[in-house]
TrEMBL record:
Organism: Echeneis naucrates
Gene: ppfibp2a
PANTHER family, per database record: LAR INTERACTING PROTEIN LIP -RELATED PROTEIN, LIPRIN-BETA-2
Domain SAM intervals: 192-256, 269-327, 352-383
Keywords: Coiled coil, Phosphoprotein, Repeat
Known function: May regulate the disassembly of focal adhesions. Did not bind receptor-like tyrosine phosphatases type 2A.
Protein name: PPFIA binding protein 2a
PROSITE patterns: SAM_DOMAIN (PS50105)
Family of this protein: Belongs to the liprin family. Liprin-beta subfamily.
Region of interest (Disordered), ranges: 159-179, 500-519
GO CC annotation terms, alphabetical: cytosol; presynaptic active zone
Length: 519
């Protein structure tokens, strides 16, 4: 037993020695791991310092980015101003083209007068020949005849002596302002002379048709009884909008109706396009000579002829015409600059121009996106009167990215406070209605395709049918997607004074109803 225990003891001693060797090896490994841990800790501290430096560098870059964005917005504003100046340059160019046309017309007049001069000279030579024959035949009674040429025509001696001709005075003293006789509005249009009609066409912006009109038109009655086909054939009026402009003016002469829109010429319409945010169509409207009366009777086909195909731009023009109707075509109804009001009402917002909406965006800390509204057609009337125009539509037009949710939420809050709770509720209800089609910035308006059975309806339809007007004459109702809706008093495009008058007119009716209920 003792020898067995000794053997166990030796084996235990061996095991202890082995274990001590293993412990020493593990201690070496632990020391190595501790050194590596210290090294990794040092690397971690260095990476944290580098990260902090990167964060500081990134914040500085973001500050530089904000400053650069501010400079970009400033440059965009300068670019918009330069574009406005360029638009003024195009207007001057159009005026110069108009002056060139007037010069050509004057040249034609001078040639016509030269032809008349030649005819008068021929007649004068013939009369001289006849007079010589009479002098030879009546040589005995010359003194009596001479005393009699003086009594009848005291200036006849000037022609015989080679003085001033009868055609020289009017040809030399005639100016563009005096080229046509003044039109007397007290005289019926049917009794106007050819020269009066030509002068009226020149003043009405249709001076390019004066030369052919002089050859065809005899009096005003001939022009009143003419058809659009006659205008196209006899006057060379190929542009359908020019024919419509002439037809509307002749209808006003026939019905003797005085329209406030007739006081707005085609130059004012180009400035109006700037106000509603559609300056890209000024050339088309100017070439078509679209004036205030044509704006009142614009149709969808007219806008397509003017190359306005965007659905959003159609709605913009429709709401802008509605604002003009509500303000009785006051040429200064749109507001271009911010006033003294702190919180504008919807009846004031509806009169905002495109530039005024951009000023509002700068006031709500969205100045960097404001230049994106130029050429978009956004104005106060579109914001208030169009139920499909929401903050999402405005965010699309401003090119705010969808991932910037906080910025879009800020825009939605500012938009709701701008249009008011009633309009916000109406827009929300309209958006939640069944069959609602959201308003997009890329939708196009296509012309209606007429079938064979619809041509008979076109023949029966009267020229003054208001069903096809883009904004009907009745300003009390708005037609949206074929549905006639009656907006609230704040949304009718009325000016603030008219809204107050409407409220005063409504209050006596309410009092009368309450008194009736009491009785």
């Amino acid at each position: 037993r003792l020898s067995r225990l000794e053997g166990h003891k030796e084996s235990l001693i061996l095991q202890v020695s082995v274990l001590t060797d293993q412990v020493e090896a593990q201690g070496v490994k632990i020391s190595d791991l501790e050194t590596s841990l210290v090294e990794h800790q040092r690397k971690l501290n260095s990476t944290e310092e580098m990260l902090q430096q990167e964060l500081l560098h990134r914040t500085s870059l973001e500050n530089q980015k904000l400053s650069l964005m501010g400079e970009v917005s400033y440059l965009k504003l300068k670019l918009a101003d330069m574009e406005g100046k360029q638009g003024n340059g195009t207007e001057r160019q159009h005026k110069a083209e108009g002056l060139l046309k007037e010069l050509r017309i004057l040249k034609d007049k001078v040639e016509h007068l030269e032809n008349q001069k030649l005819q008068y000279e021929k007649k004068l030579k013939a009369t001289k020949v006849k007079k010589k024959k009479k002098e030879n035949n009546l040589s005995g009674s010359f003194s009596f005849g001479h005393s009699w040429l003086q009594a009848a025509d005291p200036d006849g001696g000037q022609f015989r002596r080679g003085g001033l001709r009868a055609t020289a005075g009017p040809r030399l003293t005639r100016t563009p302002e005096q080229s046509f006789p003044k039109c007397d509005m007290n005289i019926p249009f049917s009794q106007w002379t050819k020269e009066q009609i030509c002068g009226w066409l020149e003043d009405y912006g249709l001076g390019q048709y004066v030369s052919l009109s002089r050859q065809w038109v005899e009096n005003g009655q001939m022009l009143l009884s003419a058809t659009p086909q006659d205008f196209e054939k006899e006057m060379g009026m190929k542009n359908p909008l020019h024919r419509k402009k002439l037809q509307l003016a002749l209808r006003a002469f026939t019905t003797k109706t005085v329209e406030k829109s007739a006081e707005l010429d085609h130059i004012w319409v180009t400035r109006w396009l700037d106000d509603i945010g559609l300056p890209q169509y000024k050339d088309q409207f100017h070439e078509a000579r679209v004036d205030g009366r044509m704006i009142q009777y614009l149709t969808v086909n007219d806008l397509l002829t003017l190359k306005v195909t965007s659905q959003l731009h159609h709605l913009s023009i429709k709401c802008a015409i509605h604002v003009l109707h509500a303000n009785k075509f006051n040429p200064h109804c749109l507001r271009r600059r911010p006033g003294e009001e702190k919180q504008p009402t919807p009846s004031e917002v509806v009169q905002w121009s495109n530039h005024r909406v951009m000023e509002w965006l700068r006031a709500v800390d969205l100045a960097e996106y404001a230049p994106n509204l130029r050429g978009s057609g956004v104005h106060g009337g579109l914001i208030i009167l169009e139920p499909r125009f929401s903050s999402e539509t405005l965010a699309l037009l401003l090119n705010i990215p969808p991932q910037k949710t906080l910025l879009r939420r800020h825009l939605a809050t500012a938009f709701s406070s701008l249009v008011g709770p009633q309009a916000t509720q109406e827009k929300r209800e309209y958006g939640n209605a069944t069959g609602h089609i959201p308003l997009t910035t890329t939708a196009k308006v296509k012309p209606k395709k007429l079938g064979f059975t619809q041509f008979s309806h076109l023949r029966k339809r009267k020229p003054d049918d208001s069903a096809d007007y883009i904004c009907p004459i009745d300003t009390g109702a708005l037609t949206v997607n074929g549905i006639s809706r009656l907006p609230s008093a704040a949304l009718r495009g009325l000016s603030p004074s008219l809204v107050r008058q409407a409220e005063k007119q409504e209050q006596p009716g309410i009092k009368a109803e309450t008194n009736g209920h009491k009785q």
